[in-house]
Description:
- The chain is mainly alpha-helical and 78 residues long.
- The chain is 69% helix and 0% strand.
- It contains six helices and no strands.
- It has helices at residues 2-11, 16-23, 27-34, 42-52, 56-61, 67-77.
- Helix 2 crosses helix 3 (27-34).
- The longest helix has 11 residues, at 42-52.
- The radius of gyration is 12 Å and the shape is globular.
- The two termini are 17 Å apart.
- 14% of the residues are buried.
Amino acid sequence: MEKFISNERKAKGYTQKQLSELLAISDKTISKWECGNGFPEASLLLPLCNELEITVNELLTGERISQQNYKKKEDRIF
C-alpha cells in the first residue's frame, strides 16, 4: 500500500509537505506511510482518500479498482 499512497500523491502533483498540510499532520507521517512504517489512523482515512481522489477500498487494497472488480475486491476486504 505504501507505493500506492506515494504514486497517488505524485499523480495529484503533491509533495509530502503539501499533502501533510492539507491533512494537518506532519510530513514525516506521510513519509512513514510511504516507507511502510505505519498506516493512516482511522480519522485520516476519509480526508486522505478525498485529497487523493480514491476510495477507502482502493487505499486498503493498494490499487485502483474498476467498477466491475469493485464488488470482488470489497468481498475480499470484508
